[in-house]
Structures are given as C-alpha cells and as structure tokens.
Amino acid sequence: MKKSIYLIAIALIALTHELNAQYTEVINSNRPGSSYSAFSVGKNVFQIEGGFYYERWDHSWLRTKSNRYAMDIVLRYGFLFEQLELIYDGQYTFAKVIENTAINPRKYNQNDFTKNTIGLKYLIYDPFKDPERNKPDLYSWKANNHLQWRNLIPAVAIYAGVNLNFGDNPFYPQQESLTPKVMLATQHHLTPNWVFVMNFAYDQFTSDDPLYSYVLTLTHALRDPRYTIFVEHQGFKSDYYSDGIFKMGAARLFNQDFQLDASFGINIKDTPARFFGAIGASYRLDFHQDPKNKYNNFSEKDREFIKDAKKNRKNNNPFEEIED
Q: What is the per-residue pLDDT for 247?
C-alpha cells in the first residue's frame, strides 16, 4: 500500500511540475503563513483563504494595552495566463484599547481595515519549465527525495499592488488613500517535503514613511502529506515602526480543495510586545483545464504509468489511502 501511494505521489509530482508548473491537483494555499507563493493558483481557479485572528498589544513606553480581534480574507484568481494571479488581501480589525497614561485609565474601541490591498502577481521564472531537466525518476525514491543542487534555483515572481485607505482610519490616520506596494517573491522546492519561500517588499514608497519588509517561510510536509508544519520570520523597517516577528503553525488537508490551519507568534520587542494566534481555512473553486497534449513530454511507458496511477486513486484523493 505504501509503495503504491509513493508511486502515485511521484506521478502527481510529474503532472504538477511538468505539465502546468502553476496548477496543482491539491489546493496550494499561502495560509497559515504570511508570505506569498511565487506560483499562482492556476488559470481559471478561484481561491479564498480566510480566518480569525487575535492579537494582544502591550506597549511599555506608552503604557497602552490593546486586544485586537480581526477577520482575514484573501481572494486569489488565476486568469489569462497560468503565471498571472489577481490577489485581494484584507484584514478588518476590532480593537479594545486601554491607555494608562493618565490618573484615570482611558478605554475606547477602534475598528477599520488594518490591511486592504489589491494587486497582480506574475511568475517571471519557473525552474520546472524544462521538462527534461526536471523530469522525476518514477522508479527511484532516493533520486526524488534528496536535495539536489538544481533545487537551490528558485521560482521568481513579481508583485505590484495598491493599498486602499479610505475614510478616517484610526489605525493609519496619516496614511494616504492610495499607496503603492511592490514585492519580489522566490520559492525553493528543496525536496518534495521541504519548501522555502522568501518575500521582499517595498510598501507605501510614495508616502513620507515608506515601509521595507521581508518574510522567510519554511514549510515541511509530514510523512502523512495531509499535514504540513511551518516556521516563519518577518521583519519590518520604517521611520515610524520596526520589528521582527516569529511564527509557527500547521495545516491539515481534508480534500483536494479544502484545508484548515492554525498558527501563533510573538515579536522581539516591547514597544509594543505582541502575541497573536489565528485559525483559518482555504477553499478553491477549480475550473482549470489541462492542455490536450499534457502527456507529450513523457515516454509511452511513463504515460501509461501515470494514467494508471490517476485511474487507481481512491475518490480522486491520493491521501485517503495512506496508512501509518
């Protein structure tokens, strides 16, 4: 049973990386991390990623505490090309604030968007595009599961978007209504079980206080590939605010189009000290169509192997037959 599952998994890797490079047969969510994958969801795929978020702020210098409750939502749509993706990234936050700067503490509530961005991401370099160079060995576990030097070459994508800040936003009272954001995203598939993503962003650079940020995310698929874990580090730098954040969490795949996740994190300073946790889900509507010549890059023997593997998958889900 385990051998058959392994062979099916290799067949799926072959299909994923040689036929489309973008589209995957199981959902590819950015949650629970904060980084953007270099790859898109695939042409004609609509994906929603959302959740609930809690954060506690404790600013020792300002003597201010805040409990924040937020709803996250990310909408992703692949269109026109396999490499192109439209992304809306939003977070609406409710905050309960206590200021202890006076004799009598002041309590008040705030609510508005703490994130409200729309943009386009495009894959400019795909290391899996050459089918001969990256064709998996369908009969060797070792050849497919150990780090190879070619895996150090990342996929690269560029992103350009705009931050929307309308009305009197109490979280960003000085921010302009429209500010640009650009980003470089890289993605290394070190082995089939390890993926390393890096994002480098330049945000609000038309304002008086531009923000530089980066995200480093390392994800690992466990022996049961329905489960993944991740660790992540984020850094921020501007004249107004700088910080470093560390996060970790896990996700569980329930079927090809749905996953649940949970994460938590802390920062490295006390102005403010931050602790946060999140739970969420990702779901996709898959209208992707494979090209008619999708098996052309394989030998006749490999084509028959892949077709048989796909045919024998239980309920079209390669994870259902996994045994410990």
A: 97
DSSP-assigned letters across all residues of 255-290 = ETTEEEEEEEEEES-STTEEEEEEEEEEEEEE----
Question: Kind and range of the H or E element at 304?
Answer: helix 300-311
At 65-122, the pLDDT tens digits run: 999 999 999 999 999 999 999 999 999 999 999 988 777 888 999 999 999 999 999 9
Please report whether residue 36 resides in a domain.
yes
CA distances from 26 to 12, 50, 226, 236, 304 (A): 10, 18, 10, 32, 22
DSSP letters, 203-225, are ESTTSSS-EEEEEEEEEEE-SST
Secondary structure element (H or E) that encloses residue 303, with its range? helix 300-311
Phi, psi of 309, deg, nearest 5? -65, -45
Q: Range of 193's domain? A: 2-48+74-86+99-259+285-316
> Is 220:194 a contact under the CB 8 Å cutoff?
yes
User: Is there a domain that residue 184 lies in?
Assistant: yes
Count of the separate structural domains present in the chain: 1
Contact 170, 159 (CB under 8 A): no
State how far the Cα of 46 lies from the Cα of 134, in Å rounded to an integer.
28
d(CA 59, CA 72): 24
Q: Within a domain: residue 92?
A: no
What separation in angstroms does the CA of 21 have from each of 12, 14, 24, 236? 12, 10, 8, 31
Are 113 and 88 a contacting pair, CB within 8 Å? no
Residues shown for the chain: 324
d(CA 36, CA 294): 27
β-sheet bridge partners, residue 47: 76, 284
The 10s digit of each residue's pLDDT in 7-61 is: 444 444 444 444 445 678 889 999 999 999 999 999 999 999 999 999 999 988 8
Domain membership flag for residue 276: no
Q: How far is residue 253's CA from residue 281's CA, in Å, rounded to a whole number?
A: 10
Bond before 272 cis per omega within 30 degrees: yes
